[in-house]
Structures are given as structure tokens and as C-alpha cells.
Write a structure and sequence with these properties.
The protein has 214 residues and is mainly α. 83% of the residues lie in helices and 0% in strands. Keywords: Membrane, Transmembrane, Transmembrane helix.
Length: 214
């Protein structure tokens, strides 16, 4: 039961993100606001579904928890947040799944907003095949990846790979004019570079722990 609960954010974000990529090309012409609206709905649904699953798949039916009162419930909520963080830091596959779902929805939103409204500002980038949405999503991946270096785990590598995959698929699926080869190459280089950075950070951290132990 605990594993299902901790995995629920990855499941929710992956399922909704995959449905968005599958249905958006057909649905956006019929939806007022087009792709940004669909992406916004998807993000909201991902968050709501995650919160619902985290609250529903728990031990609330345990008599001991029911008798613990509000103080215990608050303490349990804190423990759940810490457990979720620890789970995704240490597990590569769930982190990759979560990264994929986040990137799919965020990239769709960026395509619908940035590639339309900022095209003139990034005219040169558009000519060489780099979209404003790709710049924004690359920056987001860099920020989230660097933030994980302080608490490095297998989740770092899974997050980077899953995020890159979700962003690439969203670009290819939702933007018919995207330069596929440049997009795939760019994200591959970025992901490998982050993996190398994570590996180096892991070795440095391991050496520090050994020196402290000695």
C-alpha cells in the first residue's frame, strides 16, 4: 500500500501527460484557447489527481490513525511529504515517469504561449530550429537538476531522462514545424551532460564521505 501511495504522483502525471500528447492535436481546434487551455487543464488535473491519490491511498482506515487526532494527522502529513521526496530522490524509474509527465504538460503550455507570443523576439532561434519553448524547458530542466545535486540519488538520472523524453515527444507531437533532428540532438546532449555532471558530483560526494569516515 505504501508503494502505491508513493508512486501515485508519477502515475498521475504520466497518465495525464500521455493523454495530453495523444489527444491534444485532435482536441485543441475544438477547445477555446487551444493548446494553452488544454495544457493548463492537464496540469491542474495532474495536481488534483496526485493530491487525491495521496490522500486516498493511505492508512486512514487504520483505527490507530483515526484515534490519533488532528496532531497525529498533521505529523503524518509531514512524514508523507518527506517520504515522497525521499522516494523520488532515490528511485530512478518513478522519477523518470514523473519527469515525463511534468515535461509533457509544461512543454505543451510553453509551445502554446511562448512559441506564439515570443516568436518575433526569438526570430534567429526559430530560424535555426530552436523554439522559445525549448529554451524555457531546457532552463527548467537545468534548474531542477542542479537543485537535486545537493541530495543526489538515482532519481536525478531518471528525472533528467524522463523530462527530456517528455519534452521531445511534446515538441514533435504538438509542433508540426519543429526541426526533429535538432530537437532530439539538443536534448540528448543536454541530458548526457547532466548525467555526466551527476556522476562527477556523486564521485566527489563519495570521496568526501570516505575522507570523513577515515
Amino acid at each position: 500500500m505504501r508503494l502505491y501511495r508513493l508512486s501515485s504522483p508519477a502515475i498521475a502525471f504520466t497518465v495525464i501527460g500521455a493523454l495530453l500528447l495523444l489527444l491534444a492535436p485532435v482536441a485543441q481546434p475544438t477547445v477555446r484557447g487551444g493548446l494553452p487551455t488544454l495544457a493548463g487543464y492537464a496540469l491542474a488535473l495532474q495536481v488534483v489527481l496526485t493530491l487525491f491519490l495521496l490522500a486516498a491511498i493511505d492508512d486512514l482506515q487504520d483505527p490507530k490513525m483515526l484515534a490519533a487526532g488532528r496532531a497525529q494527522a498533521a505529523e503524518n502529513s509531514f512524514d508523507i511529504r518527506r517520504a515522497v521526496l525521499t522516494f523520488y530522490v532515490g528511485k530512478g524509474l518513478p522519477a523518470a515517469s514523473l519527469g515525463f509527465g511534468v515535461a509533457a504538460s509544461m512543454t505543451a503550455l510553453a509551445i502554446g504561449v511562448l512559441d506564439r507570443d515570443l516568436a518575433d523576439l526569438y526570430h534567429y532561434g526559430m530560424l535555426v530550429g530552436i523554439r522559445p519553448s525549448e529554451i524555457a524547458m531546457s532552463a527548467l530542466l537545468l534548474v531542477t537538476a542542479v537543485a537535486q545535486l545537493r541530495r543526489l540519488g538515482n532519481g536525478f538520472f531518471g528525472w533528467c531522462g524522463g523530462f527530456a523524453l517528455g519534452s521531445v515527444l511534446a515538441q514533435v507531437r504538438l509542433d508540426a514545424t519543429v526541426a526533429v533532428d535538432i530537437t532530439v540532438l539538443g536534448w540528448t546532449v543536454l541530458t548526457v551532460a547532466l548525467w555526466v555532471l551527476g556522476g562527477l558530483a556523486g564521485m566527489v560526494g563519495s570521496r568526501r564521505r570516505r575522507s570523513r569516515g577515515a
